[in-house]
């Protein structure tokens, strides 16, 4: 699987799946990402990303239990596959590699608290 | 209870999304909604929900394949296995469904063949877009008369005066000049044969039409005097296996002027407006002195081939100058009163050759025409039959829904998706559609000969056409899908829990549509039944109307003009036979297809004062009136003893009226010379009963081609024909006798009426069958729906009659409504049809009553099968599941 096949949003969703397992499903991921980024994230967008990830074999899914808020409907739960895990690790390695090579004053200073 | 999001958005989602994704998507949406209501309040949550829903409307959610595949080969075979089992389980029902559909398809196919043939007329000429026929228009006080007979020199003038014209050609198909039918033989044999399909034609006509040649050169086939061109089939008959070009043929025993065969053409195809077997050249021919230059008699059809890139509409307007420069001088010379006024009403129209077959309504041109209106009507009927058949098919499928509901329920519980069920029902409908198409085509093949006699055509199914089989297969698929779509959606929408609990969906919502369908079908049926009755009554009227002459027991011996003077001998010999009462020699008979001769008449001495009365001027002999059984109302018959009778005429009552004669017997009438009126004959019909009786003038004269023989009633026909044949053989040893009977010729005049009658009755039968199938489907549907009600009624003591009444009453009401709608429409249509006839029967209320009763009893008969069956079932069968 080529890395370039993983989009930026997909990467974030894949990480969220990993973070939220074993309770990773569209709504939880969308809520999480919305909180983290401050932007409105629709479940539709997350759902689409998950579908793509599943097509690429990076996640698995199965139907979970039903809840009252869902009107008695079941949810689809996701977990990362070995292939997904490998991709995540690769991405992480590349990023960390790059971070470690940045010289101390190469980046302009920003106030991260703002 | 969690808060509910806006429902209409959910509906959109349900409608758009594939079934297998709906659960998780809707669950996600609802959960998020309830979270949002807590976080930001209901108002904002609704806004966001809208965005959420639309974020799901993506192609991947609309057509994403399920992990359980709908189309797999074993599943596909299973669909057809199940469909086949269903079909063979309900044999009668399947037969009705397939039979009805097949009938519709067969009818549709035949009508399409008919339309295709009608539209193919005259499409085969290489220059068809440049070939036109000249039509004369005469505006008779608002009524436009159209006419294609023109003077001989017109063609020459068109070519010479108009540079746009490339070629002009004429034909003269008039019997008066010897076209039509003749005796012909090879110059080296004695025996004559009788042939039809003669015409006089110009060499240029062959060039215009680019008639394909078998022998000879087209350019020179008719360019020499006394040449003749034969069709291939006739050439094969007279000159088998040889090239006849240059050989001689003898026409009507006229050995002094033999005809040289100039060429052989391919037979005119059946879809050509012209169809002649013998073309005699006009080169060097003049029927009387000055005829070819005369503008005062019109016997020629004129065709034009325009040069390329010419707009005939512009030439058409320029043609008006012909009236002034050629017609006017001729009319003035002949003393026609007020010629400018007459010519002001005349104009020309150029008719494309491809329009001649279908768009020549009202033009009398000695051709048999189609009618563009029939093409439209038949096309509409074909579409109508197909739609009705499809609707019946749908109805019959949904009618069995109760039976299938349980199957649907069980399938769904076991895990079938709606898509699977839809596919299954579509597969079933496809199977039915294909079987129906096969049956329909077989039926069409079977009915083709009958249809051909009905439409007077020789149609065949064009198997060799590349598009036919794929076209039929495609139609089968499309119609199968269309007809199966509604039942598939309807049946697959059953909720398993309702079905398995025993709750049947009522389906009464669509009962209005069903009723309208029944009314529609029965209205058409009743209209067609009334039409059939009226047409047969008119036929009956035609054959029993007093027609002014006695058409029975008259033998017509044809083709006697070749005998020359011996025709008198023949007459005398025939009179010696004991069975023969009278014999008359005259070609002018009161039936269609015999000779006609129109003349303008005046009272003697008023020629340049009055407008002429156009009358038939017939040459007869002194025995004509007795032979035909016509009655004199005044004066006397011709007498051969009186030499002065060669100047005498007998006129009919209409002529007396038209000329306004007070005392006809002492008057003289004038056409080109003056005639003494010696008698007045009672009006007799000599044309179709469509037209009123026209004025007629009978004079003694020589017209020797037909002998009419009046036979004593009660004679032995067989023996008489033998003796007549013997007499003929003696007089004319080299010519086969040809005879017919006057009453047969009379009947032949109304062939088209009889054909219309047969067309109507065929369509009536078809409409009734289709309507009955629809009714059968509906009644079985209704019985299914009401089976529990019927069961309860039976338990509570209802009689079989009660149930029968209950079930039929509704349909009887529908048929009565149809009757009420059909009566005015049928009355109007048949009144219109009868207007074609000046002499006609009237549309009486009895006909409507009879048609209504027929429709009603057929309807009740159809329903009664289901109704009686329902009333006789044991109630326990219907109620045991409760």
From TrEMBL, chain A:
Superkingdom of origin: Bacteria
Ranges of residues in domain Transcription regulator PadR N-terminal: 15-89
Stated name of the protein: Helix-turn-helix transcriptional regulator
Organism this protein belongs to: Rhodocytophaga aerolata
TrEMBL record, chain B:
Keyword Nuclease attached: no
Domain ABC3 transporter permease C-terminal: 380-495, 762-871
Subcellular compartments: Cell membrane
Coiled-coil residue windows: none
Spans through the membrane: 95-115, 374-396, 425-447, 467-491, 512-536, 759-783, 803-827, 847-868
Membrane topology recorded in Swiss-Prot or TrEMBL: Multi-pass membrane protein
Keywords of this entry: Cell membrane, Membrane, Transmembrane, Transmembrane helix
Broad class of where this protein is predominantly found: membrane
Domain MacB-like periplasmic core, residue spans: 95-319, 525-725
Keyword Nucleus appears in the UniProt entry: no
Entry-linked Pfam families: FtsX, MacB_PCD
InterPro entries: ABC3_permease_C, MacB_PCD, Macrolide_Exporter_MacB, Permease_put_prefix
NCBIfam families: perm_prefix_2
UniProt-recorded name of the protein: ABC transporter permease
Originating organism: Rhodocytophaga aerolata
């Amino acid at each position: 699987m080529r890395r370039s096949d993983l989009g930026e949003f997909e990467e974030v969703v894949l990480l969220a799946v990993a973070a939220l397992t074993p309770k990773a499903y569209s709504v939880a991921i969308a809520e999480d990402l919305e909180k983290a980024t401050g932007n409105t994230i629709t479940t539709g967008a997350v759902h689409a990303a998950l579908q793509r990830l599943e097509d690429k074999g990076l996640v698995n899914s199965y139907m979970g239990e039903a809840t009252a808020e869902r009107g008695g409907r079941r949810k689809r739960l996701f977990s990362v596959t070995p292939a997904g895990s490998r991709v995540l690790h690769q991405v992480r390695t590349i990023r960390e590699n790059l971070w470690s090579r940045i010289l101390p004053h190469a980046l302009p200073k920003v106030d991260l608290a703002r | 209870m969690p808060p509910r999001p806006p429902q209409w958005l959910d509906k959109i989602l349900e409608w758009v999304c594939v079934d297998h994704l709906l659960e998780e998507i809707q669950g996600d949406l609802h959960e998020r909604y309830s979270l949002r209501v807590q976080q930001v309040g209901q108002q904002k949550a609704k806004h966001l929900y809208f965005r959420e829903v639309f974020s799901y409307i993506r192609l991947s959610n609309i057509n994403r394949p399920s992990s359980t595949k709908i189309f797999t080969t074993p599943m596909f075979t299973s669909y057809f296995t199940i469909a086949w089992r269903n079909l063979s389980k309900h044999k009668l029902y399947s037969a009705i469904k397939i039979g009805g559909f097949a009938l519709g398809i067969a009818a549709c196919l035949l009508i399409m063949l008919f339309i295709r043939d009608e539209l193919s007329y005259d499409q085969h000429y290489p220059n068809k877009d440049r070939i036109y026929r000249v039509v004369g228009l005469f505006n008779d006080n608002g009524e436009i008369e159209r006419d294609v007979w023109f003077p001989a020199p017109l063609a020459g003038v068109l070519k010479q005066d108009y540079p746009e014209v490339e070629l002009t050609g004429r034909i003269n198909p008039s019997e008066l000049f010897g076209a039509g039918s003749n005796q012909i033989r090879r110059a080296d044999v004695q025996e004559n044969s009788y042939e039809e399909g003669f015409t006089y034609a110009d060499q240029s006509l062959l060039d215009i039409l680019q008639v394909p040649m078998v022998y000879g050169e087209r350019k020179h086939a008719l360019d020499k005097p006394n040449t003749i061109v034969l069709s291939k089939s006739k050439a094969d008959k007279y000159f088998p296996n040889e090239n006849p070009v240059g050989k001689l043929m003898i026409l009507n025993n006229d050995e002094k002027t033999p005809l040289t065969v100039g060429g052989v053409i391919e037979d005119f195809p059946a879809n050509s407006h012209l169809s002649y077997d013998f073309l005699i050249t006009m080169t060097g021919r003049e029927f009387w002195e000055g005829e070819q230059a005369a503008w005062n008699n019109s016997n020629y059809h004129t065709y034009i081939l325009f040069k390329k890139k010419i707009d005939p509409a512009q030439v058409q307007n320029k043609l008006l100058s012909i009236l002034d420069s050629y017609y006017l001088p001729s009319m003035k010379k002949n003393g026609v009163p007020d010629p400018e006024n007459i010519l002001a009403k005349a104009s020309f129209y150029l008719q494309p050759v491809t329009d001649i077959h279908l768009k020549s309504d009202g033009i009398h041109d000695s051709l048999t025409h189609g009618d563009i209106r029939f093409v439209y009507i038949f096309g509409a009927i074909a579409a109508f039959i197909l739609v009705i058949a499809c609707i019946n098919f749908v109805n019959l499928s949904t009618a069995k829904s109760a039976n299938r509901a349980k199957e649907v329920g069980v399938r769904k519980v076991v895990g079938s998706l709606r898509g699977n069920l839809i596919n299954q029902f579509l597969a079933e409908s496809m199977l039915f559609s294909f079987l129906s198409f096969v049956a329909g085509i077989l039926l069409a093949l079977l009915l083709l000969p009958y249809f051909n006699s009905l439409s007077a055509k020789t149609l065949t199914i064009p198997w060799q056409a590349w598009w036919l089989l794929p076209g039929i297969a495609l139609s089968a698929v499309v119609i199968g899908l269309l007809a199966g779509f509604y039942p598939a959606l309807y049946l697959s929408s059953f909720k398993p829990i309702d079905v398995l609990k025993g709750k049947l969906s009522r389906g009464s919502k669509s009962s209005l549509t069903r009723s309208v369908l029944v009314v529609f079908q029965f209205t058409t049926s009743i209209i067609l039944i009334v039409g059939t009755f009226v047409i047969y009554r008119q036929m009956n009227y035609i054959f029993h109307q007093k027609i002014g002459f006695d058409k029975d027991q008259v033998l017509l011996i044809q083709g006697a003009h070749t005998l020359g003077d011996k025709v008198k001998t023949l007459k005398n010999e025939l009179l010696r036979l004991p069975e023969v009462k009278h014999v008359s020699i005259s070609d002018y008979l009161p039936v269609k297809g015999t000779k006609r001769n129109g003349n303008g008449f005046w009272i003697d001495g008023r020629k340049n004062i009055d407008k002429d009365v156009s009358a038939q001027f017939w040459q007869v002999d002194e025995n004509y009136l007795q032979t035909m059984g016509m009655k004199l109302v005044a004066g006397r018959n011709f007498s051969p003893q009186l030499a002065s009778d060669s100047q005498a005429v007998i006129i009919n009552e209409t002529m007396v009226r038209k000329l306004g004669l007070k005392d006809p017997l002492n008057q003289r009438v004038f056409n080109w010379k003056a005639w003494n009126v010696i008698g007045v004959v009672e009006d007799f019909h000599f044309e179709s009963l469509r037209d009123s009786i026209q004025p007629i003038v009978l004079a003694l004269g020589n017209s020797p081609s037909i002998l009419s023989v009046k036979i004593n009633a009660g004679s032995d026909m067989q023996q008489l024909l033998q003796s007549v044949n013997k007499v003929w053989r003696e007089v004319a040893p080299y010519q086969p006798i040809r005879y017919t009977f006057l009453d047969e010729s009379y009947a032949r005049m109304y062939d088209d009426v009889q054909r219309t009658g047969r067309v109507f009755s065929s369509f009536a039968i078809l409409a009734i069958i289709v309507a009955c199938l629809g009714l059968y489907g509906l009644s079985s549907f209704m019985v299914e729906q009401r089976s529990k009600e019927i069961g309860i009624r039976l338990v509570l003591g209802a009689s079989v009659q009660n149930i029968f009444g209950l079930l039929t009453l509704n349909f009887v009401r529908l048929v009565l409504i149809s009757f009420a709608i059909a009566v005015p429409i049928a009355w109007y249509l048949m009144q219109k049809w009868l207007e074609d006839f000046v002499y006609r029967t009237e549309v009486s209320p009895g006909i409507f009553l009879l048609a209504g009763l027929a429709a009603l009893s057929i309807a009740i008969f159809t329903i009664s099968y289901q109704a009686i069956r329902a009333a006789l079932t044991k109630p326990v069968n219907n109620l045991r599941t409760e």
